[in-house]
């Protein structure tokens, strides 16, 4: 029998009693697709358990219980923020913050400030949850918190924070630009490319040299090509064409990469032609 045919109680029993995490998310996803007051109430009860594993199960089910707009959203957020006031287990806090991030479109200033207060928590799991919770929130305190996280020792936290600053909000000020600029030479490639993209979107001319160097080194991916298009700078066309000519007959290069490069050339050519005719 497929797990989709199991009762809610059987799925919850498996989640609580399984000794491994192998099927955990499969079972949670089935429950998330079953929106009911009864399941909501059972999940809330799980969040009150003395066992952190069981608290996490309830938190994770509620995080995406139903399609957007989620029918129990306000009640779920109240549960989460009540828990954030008292929870101390780092693993549970990470789940809570991730879950807030899945439902952060209309948080109040008080709620955002509460989330940002976890910047003082040095636990790596908590920082990971915190950066996710703040993605897409255009709020001064949230942005200040992401700026601090963008220089974190953990590469994936820096990456997500830089992504949040560069691509998930439209706000453009010197603090955001300088935080992005600090990451353009990051040793973590994805973080560096997210910073380049964010600066290109904000028309920061300093990034042109960084993009040019990346194109010359030919060690880049699709995100750099997207940044090139954002700049609408025709001076990149010769480098792009040279890169394409270098690899066009190399069968060891994935054809999709060649196609992406050609598409970038075509799009940039079209954009710059439109600009010149204005």
From TrEMBL:
UniProt xrefs under SUPFAM superfamilies: ARM repeat
Superkingdom to which the source organism belongs: Bacteria
InterPro entries from the UniProt entry: ARM-like, ARM-type_fold
UniProt protein name: HEAT repeat-containing protein
């Amino acid at each position: 029998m497929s797990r989709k045919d199991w009762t809610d109680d059987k799925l919850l029993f498996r989640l609580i009693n399984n000794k491994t995490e192998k099927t955990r998310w499969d079972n949670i996803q089935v429950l998330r697709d079953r929106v009911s007051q009864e399941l909501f109430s059972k999940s809330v009860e799980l969040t009150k358990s003395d066992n952190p594993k069981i608290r996490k199960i309830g938190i994770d089910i509620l995080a995406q219980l139903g399609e957007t707009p989620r029918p129990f959203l306000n009640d779920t957020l109240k549960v989460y923020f009540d828990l954030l006031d008292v929870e101390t287990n780092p693993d549970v806090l990470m789940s809570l913050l991730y879950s807030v991030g899945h439902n952060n479109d209309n948080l109040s200033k008080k709620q955002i400030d509460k989330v940002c207060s976890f910047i003082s928590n040095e636990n790596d799991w908590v920082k990971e949850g915190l950066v996710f919770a703040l993605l897409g929130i255009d709020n001064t305190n949230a942005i200040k918190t992401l700026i601090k996280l963008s220089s974190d020792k953990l590469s994936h936290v820096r990456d997500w924070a830089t992504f949040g600053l560069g691509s998930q909000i439209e706000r453009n000020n010197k603090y955001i630009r300088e935080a992005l600029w600090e990451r353009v030479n990051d040793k973590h490639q994805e973080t560096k490319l997210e910073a380049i993209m964010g600066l290109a979107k904000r028309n920061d001319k300093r990034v042109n040299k960084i993009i040019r160097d990346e194109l010359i080194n030919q060690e880049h991916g699709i995100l750099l090509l997207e940044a090139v298009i954002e700049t609408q700078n025709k001076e990149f066309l010769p480098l792009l064409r040279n890169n394409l000519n270098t690899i066009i007959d190399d069968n060891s290069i994935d054809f999709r990469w060649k196609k992406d490069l050609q598409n970038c050339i075509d799009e940039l050519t079209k954009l710059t032609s439109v600009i010149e005719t204005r």
